[in-house]
User: What shape does this take?
Amino acid sequence: ALASLPRDSLTVSTKVGRLLVPDGTAGADETIFADVPAVHPVFDFSADGVHRSFEASLERLGLDRVDIVHVHDPDDHIEEALAGAFPALRRLRDEGVVGAIGAGMNQAAALARFVREAGLDCVLVAGRYTLLDQSAIDDLLPLCEQQGVSVIAAGVFNSGLLANPSPGAHYDYAPAPSAILDRARQLATLCERHDVPLTAAALQFAAAHPAVTHVLTGVRSVRELHSNVADFERPIPLELWAELRTEGLLDDRSPTP
Assistant: This one.
């Protein structure tokens, strides 16, 4: 599919560090994913590991360069990533086969450290700047704004809870705790009072911070894609944001969309 399109019309992003290795044991492993093939994750944040992963990605993609490469979930390998993965990616960026380098994680603290120490162009922060969790505003977002590092806000529905806050909904890849579910329902009730879909408020809230350049959404169908676009474009009354603040649901440091 990529080969059939003009390369300059595409922005292609990939990740390194978390590899899926086929060995037939996936059925015995605990996993948050559905319908997993016979693979299991192996983490390798060494320079050699990054080069192998990147070259394999290029081969699968049928490309000779990519626009963005993220180091994928180095939570338990921070020092190795700083010593191996990020220097390797900086060299690939210098050579022109990578346009920008970043890191993708479900936490903000380590990303802030990488911004300070690893020469990143962007970060992908999942689930930490949402209507339910605004912890990225403590350090990461102001730091990125100051240093000109682009923030890709992902997981803005917090594993689906902000898309459908009903019993059995997930938050951070697991069934939502009752207190979190109650908070999501409170958000939904306030949005309904102003005739605003909760999904629209979730998307536009994340997009409003000046450090956030992209909001990353996942879609399962063309219908969901059109729904997301409509949510981004839907007018939202300022009164909703004011009421969310009055109810203590928004951090006072977060900008109003």
Q: What stands out?
A: The radius of gyration is 19 Å.
